[in-house]
Amino acid sequence: MKRIIAVVSTIIALALPVIASASTWNIDPEHSNVGFKVKHLMVSNVKGVFEKHSGTVDIDDKDITKSKVTVRIDTNSINTNVQKRDEHLRSPDFFDVAKYPAMTFVSKKVAKAGEGNLKVTGDLTIHGITRQVVLDVEGPTAESKDPWGNIRRGASASTKINRKDFGLTWNKALETGGVVVGEEVAITLEIEMIKAQPK
Prior knowledge:
Blueprint: H1 2-21, E1 22-27, E2 33-40, E3 44-50, E4 53-60, E5 68-74, E6 78-79, H2 83-90, E7 102-112, E8 117-126, E9 129-138, E10 144-145, E11 151-162, E12 181-195
Antiparallel strand pairs: 1-4, 1-12, 2-3, 2-12, 3-6, 4-5, 5-7, 7-8, 8-9, 9-11, 10-11, 11-12
């Protein structure tokens, strides 16, 4: 009996470092930014943000490739600082927020991409259509304690998509050639996370 207890104790002791290396982090929406940029009239870029978003990041510091990311973005929260344009973007011509109130990203693979960088492959769902995308990620940073005792980390990510791949096809041709809205959309994320408390 003592031998069995000793074996079990050894297994638990060996497993503890593995368990301790993985932690869950909640995205802090007040200190994070989900932005995008798209060409307008073939001459300039229009920038915007989604003001409401949430998500979790499971970070395995022992093996970062085992980490996972899940993000949900409220499409109705789009803001380009032009009310009329935002209303059009919420309409069935674009995001159709009444039918598709959220876009999501769920990671499927995390790979190292040099010192401090990662490539996170996952499923991006917009307008009811899911496509695989790759995020270029800087981070996550080292842990830092804020003045209120929360443990925080940060990360930056970027990718480019073709909006037509997600059914966002509205456009108008220009007399001088080209179109009103570009097809390529650059997406940037500045993420700050708070370590979840153990349950």
